[in-house]
Automatic annotation (TrEMBL):
Chain ranges passing through the membrane: 12-35
Naturally occurring in which organism (per UniProt): Amblyomma variegatum (Tropical bont tick)
Keyword Phosphoprotein belongs to the record: no
PANTHER family: FATTY-ACID AMIDE HYDROLASE, FATTY-ACID AMIDE HYDROLASE 2
Family as reported in the entry's similarity comment: Belongs to the amidase family.
Protein's recorded name: Amidase
Domain Amidase: 69-243
Any Pfam family: Amidase
Keywords: Membrane, Transmembrane, Transmembrane helix
Keyword ATP-binding carried by entry: no
Listed GO CC annotations: endomembrane system
Amino acid sequence: MMPSLLKGCRAVLVEILVYLWCNATRLLFHVWFIWRRPRPLPPVKDDILLRSATSLAAAIRNGEVKSVDLVSAYIRRIREVQPIINAVVEDRFEEALRDAEAADRLVASGTMSAQRLSQEKPLLGLPFSVKDSIAVKGMRQDAGSLMHRGRRAVEDAPAVPRMRAAGAIPLALTNVPELCAWDDAHNLVYGTTRNPHDTRRGPGGSSGGEGSLLASAGSLIGLGTDIAGSVRTPAAYCGIFGH
């Protein structure tokens, strides 16, 4: 009789402790969210940042939009939002502008028709961002890990030359959790990436930097990776399309 009574009392005590812990945690976060206000992002001033990749690709091929102007617009936007969301770990702005100039020269030369460009270089002149765990030759590849801090990629990951061959231009690397092992975008190398819709919250992970930057109109196309939701979770948290 006594052992069963003690067992029942322990079970009730555990339930009470769990209840108190959950409510104390809920209260703590409630106070935190009241005390710490989110930082709003500056509004998008350039409408080109709100256009789709397909429409911009067609406009560049037809000479209606300059790749240099498009890349410059995204550079300005990244510089606006980066102090708030902390999504970018390294950029290649100068190199990207040179790549954009080359794309514009190709279009202006007339050596390839718009139809041929659409078939052979469908992403000509479009900037894209890349998750830090994906190698871009010459850029960082430490995946938010102190152990690998400062490591540089010696060659491109397979997806990157495919994007380049299609005419796209790498613009920036984005933040991830350490070794992409968590569902957020925080590490001890680059800090915490914020959700642009509410900077008190995270963007999900592990492609959290991509999700945050895309949702901030700071990137047109993003390269991420997904095994257990690393693209799907940031897409859901940040309100963007992930595939």
